[in-house]
Fold:
Amino acid sequence: MRAELTGRRSDFDPLAGYRERFAETEGHELLTRLQDVDFGLYLVDDLLTKTDRASMAWSLEARVPFMDTVVSNFAFSLPVRHKVRGFSKKRLLRKAMEPLLPREIVHGKKRGFSIPAAAWLRGELEPFARETLSADTIRRQGFLEHSAVTRVLDDHVSGREDLSRQLWGLLAFTLWYERHVEGVTRDVSLEALVAE
Structure:
C-alpha cells in the first residue's frame, strides 16, 4: 500500500528497527524473541512514552509496577508454558490475582484505550478527512498519489475494509506537514468536529 500511496518504490523499510532487534536474539525461543522486540521498542518508543506524556500533561505520576526490573526479569525467565497456553495469556499473573480481584476482572476480556476512529471516519469526520486529503492539498505537498488516497478513504467509508489506521496516519502526516512545514493552520478542533 505504501508504494501505491506514494506512487513510487521506496527502499525505506519502516520495520527495519524491529527486524534488527529480532535478529539480535537469534537462537532463543520465538516467544522470547517477540517479547524482547515489544519490550525494547514498542513499550519504550510507543506505549510508555504516550503514558508518560499523557500523565505528565495533567501533573499525574503514573506507575508501571510490572516494568520493575525484578518483575520483568522474572517474567522473561519463565518457561513459555507459564506465559501462554493456546489463546490463554498472562497465566501466572491471572492465577496470582484470583484471590485478590473479582473473577470478571481476572478472566475478563482485554480492553484497550482506542478511540472509535473507524466509526468517526465513516461518520462525522468523513467530510474533514475528505477536505484535509483533497486533491489540491495532496498535489501541493507532493508526497502522495491523490487517487490512491481517495481509494483508501472510499474503501473505508463504504465498509469494504477497516482502513482507519492508515487514514489516521495520512491525516496526521498531512496536518503535521501543513502546520510545521507550510505554516498553514486550520481553525478547527477535533472536539468541535465530533460534536457536530
Residues 134 and 163 are 17 Å apart (CA to CA). Residues 85-111 form one domain. The mean pLDDT is 88.
